């Protein structure tokens, strides 16, 4: 997985990385979705400030009002897809259907 210097991460990317780290081992398509989430989070962080191609420093952008909502929506959908297979059924107490008479 992509590991960037923690100091170069913006707040959204850092939060997404922390959230995904809490998931533990990734299986199936989760590694791919994770990389996509990291990329989208980084782009959200860079929407209001871009990155200088020469030195990597953050520089102000002229117009970020159109791209931020789109990136945010994509990031939410990617995170939802990542979590979709991990939803735990709170009603599952391990006793099966013992309460159901035969």
Your description of this structure?
By secondary structure, this protein is mainly α. The chain has one domain (6-84). Helices cover 46% and strands 6% of the residues. The protein has a two-stranded antiparallel ribbon with strand order 1-2. The model has no long low-confidence stretch (mean pLDDT 82).
Layout of helices and strands, plus pairs?
Blueprint: H1 11-21, H2 30-47, E1 49-51, E2 58-60, H3 67-84
Antiparallel strand pairs: 1-2
Helix pairs in contact: 1-2, 2-3
Beta-strand residue fraction: 5-15%
The separation of the N and C termini measures 50 Å
- What is the overall pLDDT average? 82
Poorly predicted regions are none
Q: How many structural units, i.e. domains?
A: 1
How many strands, which pairing sense, and closed or not: the largest β-sheet? 2 strands, antiparallel
Radius of gyration: 19 Å
- The SS-based structural class is mainly alpha
Percentage of residues assigned to helices: 40-55%
Instruction: Spell out the helices and strands N to C.
Output: HHEEH
Strand line-up in the sheet with most strands: 1-2
DSSP strand tally? 2
Number of helices: 3
Basic shape: elongated
């Amino acid at each position: 997985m992509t590991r960037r210097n923690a100091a170069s991460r913006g707040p959204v990317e850092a939060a997404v990385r922390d959230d995904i780290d809490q998931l533990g081992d990734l299986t199936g398509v989760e590694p791919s979705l994770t990389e996509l989430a990291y990329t989208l989070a980084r782009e959200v962080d860079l929407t209001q400030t871009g990155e200088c191609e020469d030195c990597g420093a953050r520089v102000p952008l002229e117009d970020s009002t159109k791209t931020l909502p789109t990136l945010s929506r994509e990031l939410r959908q990617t995170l939802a897809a990542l979590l979709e297979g991990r939803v735990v059924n709170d009603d599952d107490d391990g006793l099966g259907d013992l309460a159901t008479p035969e």
